[in-house]
Amino acid sequence: MESIVDVVVLVAISVLGAALARRFGLLAPLVLLVAGLALSYVPGFPQAHLKSELVLIGILPPLLYVAALQTSVPAFRRQIRPILLLAIGLVLVTAFVVGTVVHWILPQIPYAACVALGAIVAPPDAVSATAIARSVGLPRRVVTILEGESLLNDATALVLVRISVGALSGAAVGFWPIAGQVALKAGGGVLIGLVAAIVAAKLHRKIEDPLLEDAVSLLIPFVVVIVAEVARSSSVVAVVVCGLYLGHRIPYLLSPTSRLQMEAVWRLTTFLLEGVVFLLVGLQLRSIGNSIETDVGTTVAVTAAVIGALIVVRFVWMYPATYLVRLIPRIRRREERPPWTSPTVIAWAGMRGVVTLAAAQTLDPSPFRDLFIFIAFAVIVFTLLLQGTTLPWLAVRLGVRQDTTTADALAEAGVQHQASRAALAALEKEADGAPTEVVDRLRALVESRSNNAWERLGNQQQETPSAAYGRLRREMISAERHVFKIARNEGRIPEEVLTRAQRELDLEESQLQRSDD
Q1: How confident is the model at residue 239 (pLDDT cuts 50, 70, 90)?
Q2: Which residues, other chains included, contact 249 with Cβ-Cβ below 8 Å and sequence gap of 6+?
Q3: Do residues 193 and 241 lie in contact, with contact meaning Cβ atoms separated by under 8 Å?
Q4: Which of 366, 386, 402 is the last residue of a domain?
């Protein structure tokens, strides 16, 4: 992809692929992978060559940053033990098991290089797993564990890849040297992430223009990554720490307009990045497959062995990691014993994605580089195809679903009642001198919002007053919008008046939509 036309074509195809995936209920990454592979056979279609710097600095940081912004820090803290067992323990075990299997099949490849391959394919991707988890309605604990694992396992994998590659050039390798490097890089990443988050928080507090706040937010993950790379620390850890810190404090840092606008900007950014990345993976598969020097039989065998090892190791790890720690009395008293179905679903949610792609691109040129990249890409395709398409079925089959509608509505109603009392107290305190009709209107608004929260606990088969209000108000807004457009077309009002009225109506309608969701 060398010209602006190629880039536009790439983005257009990724958008079309994502639209088709949503239309037919398929995984967008899988659709785009297949589309990219099919397009690679089209004569004259531009070839794609992803560079490791582009993925590690241009694509991965914003994806991780957004995921961290949206992660609940209290929930993350409560599940920190299973998250660390997966993000660190499982990644290390997987890397060495896969490395041992590959070295046994291909003994001519150095063991350190085989471990590097194991680290490349070890970390699951958050995008597919959490998207499916939320759509199926898995328990929040399962979703939090999957999100937390994917945020931290990237750092473990990328550090291990660099250590393994360094071992090929004669660097010292052993438990303590590896542990020291991991601790040093992770500690540096935490420090850089915290400092960057504090600086970014101060900037957000001082900036009042929503457009400038959006620009600062877009720059933060790239600046953090560049600083961490220069300092030779874990850029992944730095971005995640920065995102968690800011995400937890966003309600106090940004204005309502900035928060709404920033959410839309980041959703569009991640949508385009994810789509383009998986399309590029598919476009590269053909050229990488053609450049492999290993015979077809051996390539298929080692690829199948790697995929099998990944699936088996994750299952073998999950059950002891879930139940053995509960032999400790303190943990057993504090935490309920989860049913076996929960770790089974987590074990099956091992789809690989962007991180595996990024790590594979970091390998230095060598006789086995193309083979390893092909294996990494095959792992992405196979896990998305097998596990990604069957995870919803498995979750439903095992009954790992949680209907939190009633519990959420009850909790919301209770807190909304407290919030309404606080709002009314503030209103009474500041109402002196205000017109009576304004005070009555505000008091009615608070009472209506409180009643709406309790309505969600009622009979869902009948239309609630708030639902009726939303339906009718949307019809009224549509009629108002139509009148303004006619007046503009007839020349009775200028375009500026229509734009201002349109914006006010759009804001109100978007608020109605949020209330429905």
Answers
A1: very high
A2: 201
A3: yes
A4: 402
Domain limits at 453? Answer: 405-462
Q: What's the domain count of the chain? A: 3
Question: What are the angstrom distances between the C-alpha of 200 and each of 197, 240, 278?
Answer: 5, 14, 31
Which two tokens mark 308?
């099998």
Residues 6+ apart with CB under 8 A from 132: 27, 349, 388, 391, 392
Q: How far lies 179's CA from each of 100, 159, 174, 188, 242, in Å?
A: 20, 10, 8, 14, 23
Residue 81 vs residues 148, 325, 345, 453: alpha-carbon distances, Å? 10, 10, 18, 35
Tokens read off for 450: 């409180």
Burial string for 45-65 (b: 16+ CB within 10 Å, else e) reads ebebebeeeebbbebbbbbbb
CA 157 from centroid of its chain's CA atoms = 17
Query: Which two three-digit tokens encode residue 456?
Result: 């969600």
Token pair of 4, please? 């602006």
* Same domain as 478, residue 449: no
Tens digits of residue pLDDT in 423-479? 778 877 777 777 877 777 777 777 776 666 665 555 555 666 667 777 888 888 889
Report the distance separating Cα 249 and Cα 198, nearest Å. Answer: 11
